[in-house]
Design brief:
Elements (H helix, E strand, L loop, with lengths): L7 H22 L8 H10 L5 H7 L9 H7 L8 H8 L10 H8 L2 H24 L4 E6 L5 H9 L5 E6 L3 H10 L7 E4 L12 E6 L8 H12 L2 E12 L6 H6 L10 H10 L7 E5 L5 E7 L1
Parallel strand pairs: 1-2, 1-4, 2-3, 4-5
Antiparallel strand pairs: 5-7, 6-7
S-adenosylmethionine binds next to helix 5.
């Protein structure tokens, strides 16, 4: 065999690729995948050769537009991944009513990573409830880092309008702050918004709970450690700092990266514990929590 002859493996790969190209065209003709297509698409994405990714994206171009959730991620209308609007679409289980896109949105919501995002919202609500139960009539101060659409707080307050929890909400994106302010205006007396960068912000007080989900996965290890060190100083005695991060076991990682162009720092439980220790927190004060799928991990530090 010389350099210009295809090996049996290459031939097999080409045949498979041709078959998959035809399959994608067929998916477009029927306006997206049905339930029994999901496994095949995910299997293909998991096996994909890096050289085929540009071609795959080309084939998917008709739906890699802001009209679908995956295309919204790919095109980044707000200029970055994981903006408040896409997260809200995930929380609200948004499905584009246009038949050209509808099935692709349904497919997206079935991805384990999308389900894990919804699960983490519920986790936050459960933790707020726990704080309220323990506090009785006393005020509880909560700081949310990278607050985005503020949906967990909004849903919690809808259920508990008399809550004594007071929230400080920090987000770098002014559009996220505006969106969240409008949405939560009925609870304005319990919420204070700060259009600030978590890296530069210096809190003016300390908190019973500091919560952050969907933010630290964008930070390099050194920034992660820096932020833990910084914010742990603003915990009241008995308070908790809880930081979410996607796990290295995220089964949707490849599809997020290949079709969503959505890259995160995925981390193990050991990574998160190591960062806390590097930030000077005694290991006895550190634990790991997970949402039910174990795809979103949470580093929990008690003061
Ligand atoms: C993926 S969203 C998560 C939103 C929310 N925590 C949730 O779980 O629904 C991340 C949010 O963090 C904000 N963000 C990103 N970098 C930030 C920074 N350095 N300081 C403050 N907010 C930041 C983004 O604007 C976005 O609203």
């Amino acid at each position: 065999m010389n350099a210009y002859t295809l090996s049996a493996t290459d031939n097999k790969l080409m045949e498979e690729t041709k078959r998959f190209e035809a399959y994608i065209q067929a998916l477009h003709q029927k306006h997206g995948p049905d339930d029994d297509d999901y496994e095949r698409i995910l299997y293909f994405v998991d096996q994909i050769q890096p050289a085929f990714i540009p071609r795959f994206r080309e084939l998917m171009k008709p739906i890699l537009t802001p009209d679908t959730i995956i295309g919204f991620s790919f095109t980044k209308p707000f200029g970055y991944n994981g903006d408040f609007f896409i997260i809200e679409k995930i929380y609200q289980h948004y499905i584009n009513p246009n038949e050209k896109y509808r099935k692709w949105d349904s497919f997206f919501h079935r991805l384990p990573a999308a389900i894990a995002v919804v699960n983490r919202k519920q986790m936050a609500i459960d933790i707020f409830r726990k704080y309220q139960k323990n506090a009785g009539e006393k005020e509880v101060k909560v700081l949310i880092l990278g607050s985005g659409p503020v949906t967990e707080v909004f849903e919690y307050l809808q259920e508990n309008p008399g809550s004594t929890l007071k929230f400080d909400l920090l987000d770098l994106d002014e559009r996220a702050i505006q969106y969240a302010k409008n949405k939560t205006s009925q609870f304005a007396d319990k919420l204070t918004f700060y259009n600030k960068n978590v890296i530069r912000y210096t809190p003016g007080e300390s908190y019973d709970l500091i919560w952050s989900a969907g933010l630290f996965d964008y930070f390099k290890a050194k920034h992660f450690v820096f932020l833990v060190k910084k914010y742990v100083e603003y915990l009241n005695d008995g308070g908790e700092l809880i930081i979410g991060n996607f796990s290295i076991d995220n089964p949707s990682r490849k599809i997020m990266e290949i079709l969503g162009d959505w890259f995160l720092y995925h981390r193990s439980e050991e990574d998160l514990i190591t960062y806390a220790v590097q930030a000077g927190v005694p290991e006895s004060k550190v634990s790991i929590m997970k949402e039910p799928l174990g795809i979103n991990l949470f580093l929990r530090i008690e003061k």
